[in-house]
Amino acid sequence: MGIVIEKAKVVLPVYESGKYVKSIIKDASVYIEGKYIKAVGDEAPAGFVADEVIDGTDRLVIPGMVNAHTHSYMTVFRNVADDLSFMDWLFGTIDPLEGKLVPEDAYWGAKLAMMEMIRCGTTTFCDMHMHVHQTNRAVSEAGMRAVIGRGLVGGLEDGKVNDAGAVRLAEALEEMKDGEICDRLNFRLAPHAPYTCDEGFLKVVAMLAKEKGYGISMHLSESVAECEGTQENYGKTPIEFAESAGVFEVPCIAAHCVQVDDKDIAIMAKNNVSVVSNPASNMKLGNGFAPIQKMLDAGVNVCLGTDGAASNNSLNMFHELSLMTLIHKGTGKTPQCVSAQEGFAMATINGAKGLGLDAEIGTIEAGKKADVAILDMNTPSLTPHNNLLAGLCYSANGSEVETVIIDGQIVMKNRKILTIDEKEVYSNIDRIVKRLELDKKEY
Hints:
Helix content: 25-40%
Strand content: 25-35%
Largest sheet: 9 strands, mixed
CATH superfamily of the largest domain: Metal-dependent hydrolases
Distance between the termini: 50 Å
Number of strands: 19
Structural class: alpha/beta
CATH class of the largest domain: Alpha Beta
C-alpha cells in the first residue's frame, strides 16, 4: 500500500560523521510504500503510487515515540496503589493483586495500554510482563511494535535453578516462538531485579542470553532499599552486582537507575548500557531523581519510559517527556539541563537504539520502517507554531496526535483507533475490576 503525507512539517534527523546529533523540522512530504518510508521530500519517488493521501496542511509529522519500559498488563491496577512507599506498593499491594490475575486479564490490560499509547503517538514499547503470549497476542492484533520480556525471578538451590526460576525461564523461551507469526515482536530476557533474582540465578540468565544472542531488560538501582539490600548481601551496588553477574556482557536496557553514583555511571558507560528513565513513576513512589545530566555527560544512552500504569499512572509519553525536560532543570538548578533536543531524542531514537532497533525506527528517513505520528498543529498547545520541537516537550500533551502509522499501516485515523474495538476493551476491563473487587476497595 502506498501512503503519502502531503506537504507537512516533518521532524528529520541530522547526522555528523554518521552519528545522530539533533532533529530539525522541514516542510516536506513523506512517501510510504508497504512497511517502509520510501522517500522524504518535495517529489514522489519514481513509480510511487499513492493509495491513500493524507493532507499535511498544519500537521506535524514525528517519528513514533518509543516507550522503553512499561508493564502493559498493569493498566488493570491503575489508581489502586497510590501514595505508598516502594516496597509497600510492590509487595504489599501489587504483588498480591498480580497473583489473582488470569492470563486473559493480561491480554485485556495490554489492549487498554495500547489504546492509550497509540492515542499519544507511541508506536513501540518494551514490556516486562508475567503472562506469556497475552501481550504478544494483543500486539499482533493492535498493530503495534514491541520488545517483550517475561519477567524472571528465581534463585539457585544446590547449584541448580529452583523450580520458580526454571518455570519462568521455560515460559520466556517458549514465548519467543511468537516472533515467527508477527515480525513486529522482538524479545529479551527480563530478570526482574536484584532483590528477586539471586546472584547465581542472574548469572544463569546472563549466560543464556549470551549463548542465545538475546539482550537483557532489568530493573536496576530503583530504590534506596534495593541498594541497601545488594550492599548487605553482596557488598556491591546494584550496578556492580549486575556487571559481576555478566548482565552487561550482552545489550542491556536498565530501567530506572535512580540511586546511582559516579562509579555506577562509569560502569554503565563502559559497558554501553542503555538507561531508561521513568520520571513520573520514580517521583510518585518516592524513589528520587536519576542523575540524568551526569549520564549524558558520560556518554550513556538515556531512553524514556513510563513504567506501568500501576505506578505512573499514565502511559502518556508526552507527559513523561515534559517531566524529563523540566525536573532536571529544577534539580540541577540550570535551564540548560536536559534540553528539548535531548529529551526528544530520549523519546525516539535513543529508545530505538536501546532496544537494538535504531536501524529500523526512531527517525523519519528513507529505508526505515514507517512508524510515524501526525499531530494537528491547530491546537492551543502548539499555537503559535514557533519552536515546534520545544513545543513537543514543554506544551504538547498528546491530545494533538491525530493519526498514527505503524509498519506502514494506519492504526489510528482522525483520532479513531482502527485496530482495536475500544468498547470491547472497556467492557472486559470493567469485568476484571469487578472480579478482583477493585471497585469495592476503599481509597
